[in-house]
Amino acid sequence: MPDPTLEAAAQTRPAVSARQGTLTAAFERCGPGLHTGRHAQVRVCPAPAGHGILFRRSLKRERTADVAALWHYRESQPLCTALRSPGGVLIRTVEHLMAAFSAHRIDNALVEIDTEELPIFDGSATPWCEGIRAAGRTELDAARPMIRIRRPVEVRDGRRSLRIEPCGALQISAFLELAHLGPMHWSGIIDPDTFDRDLAPSRSFGRLKWAVPLKIYTFITRKPVLRGANLATTAGIVGGRVVGGMKVPDEPVRHRAMDLVGDLALAGHPILGHVSAAHTGHELNHALVAALMTEPEAWELV
């Protein structure tokens, strides 16, 4: 159930903007990808009302391929959120940027990238948030449609579950329990300040005892999975501790909540609803979006 205190806050403060937003100026970021390890150059540009979030990948011979950040272009890929263009071109690991866009109410942007995968940085969304804040947000002369949940929708996979129900803002309550680390919780309303403070610093994580053999396997098979993963780009877990310590309390569950914000953004409009998440991951996140989008009686566009 929604937290009554947070629900009251959602009703009494402006959790969403009435007008669509875009960036005031363009900004650039670069770095290696988590899975391909390839260096990427990204330019994030303003876009007009109704444009949405569009990824544009540069190809050989000065060609480009576009793919909109919408749920029906999503393609299942290991340990990330990926989009496949109508022409078959892949863009992967978009979830951290999408989460930053969603939290900062950037509805329209053109993201130009020169390779397959967005940079992972230190495994967090903070560099994207810093870029958005520095660029600024400009309101556009167009209403901002929002998806208001009318009745609960739930998806499950064993102990993994996601449930969304009516709420006056996007509120997330997340739970995760990892061996040796114990139960972890995070709950909050998603707005720019809360996101930047509580969720954006949390890093992609994994247990070293599984990551090292997987990296060796993917190197031998030449599969682009975790080639860029190291202790500079992810939070490595050994037993009951995170190597170097956690950047925020209960960092793993906060990162799962951050990924969830980015995956929900593929619905195409801001969502007003409370999401209860237990042991969720990308596959279940996208299952919830698909279930919601295919049950039009469960929501309304307002």
TrEMBL record:
<comment type="function">
    <text>Catalyzes the hydrolysis of UDP-3-O-myristoyl-N-acetylglucosamine to form UDP-3-O-myristoylglucosamine and acetate, the committed step in lipid A biosynthesis.</text>
</comment>
<keyword id="KW-0441">Lipid A biosynthesis</keyword>
<dbReference type="InterPro" id="IPR015870">
    <property type="entry name" value="UDP-acyl_N-AcGlcN_deAcase_N"/>
</dbReference>
<dbReference type="GO" id="GO:0009245">
    <property type="term" value="P:lipid A biosynthetic process"/>
</dbReference>
<comment type="pathway">
    <text>Glycolipid biosynthesis; lipid IV(A) biosynthesis; lipid IV(A) from (3R)-3-hydroxytetradecanoyl-[acyl-carrier-protein] and UDP-N-acetyl-alpha-D-glucosamine: step 2/6.</text>
</comment>
<keyword id="KW-0378">Hydrolase</keyword>
<dbReference type="Pfam" id="PF03331">
    <property type="entry name" value="LpxC"/>
</dbReference>
<feature type="active site" description="Proton donor">
    <location>
        <position position="282"/>
    </location>
</feature>
<dbReference type="GO" id="GO:0046872">
    <property type="term" value="F:metal ion binding"/>
</dbReference>
<dbReference type="InterPro" id="IPR004463">
    <property type="entry name" value="UDP-acyl_GlcNac_deAcase"/>
</dbReference>
<dbReference type="InterPro" id="IPR020568">
    <property type="entry name" value="Ribosomal_Su5_D2-typ_SF"/>
</dbReference>
<keyword id="KW-0862">Zinc</keyword>
<feature type="binding site">
    <location>
        <position position="255"/>
    </location>
    <ligand>
        <name>Zn(2+)</name>
    </ligand>
</feature>
<keyword id="KW-0443">Lipid metabolism</keyword>
<feature type="binding site">
    <location>
        <position position="259"/>
    </location>
    <ligand>
        <name>Zn(2+)</name>
    </ligand>
</feature>
<dbReference type="GO" id="GO:0016020">
    <property type="term" value="C:membrane"/>
</dbReference>
<keyword id="KW-0479">Metal-binding</keyword>
<dbReference type="GO" id="GO:0103117">
    <property type="term" value="F:UDP-3-O-acyl-N-acetylglucosamine deacetylase activity"/>
</dbReference>
<keyword id="KW-0444">Lipid biosynthesis</keyword>
<feature type="binding site">
    <location>
        <position position="96"/>
    </location>
    <ligand>
        <name>Zn(2+)</name>
    </ligand>
</feature>
<comment type="similarity">
    <text>Belongs to the LpxC family.</text>
</comment>
<protein>
    <recommendedName>
        <fullName>UDP-3-O-acyl-N-acetylglucosamine deacetylase</fullName>
        <ecNumber>3.5.1.108</ecNumber>
    </recommendedName>
</protein>
<dbReference type="InterPro" id="IPR011334">
    <property type="entry name" value="UDP-acyl_GlcNac_deAcase_C"/>
</dbReference>
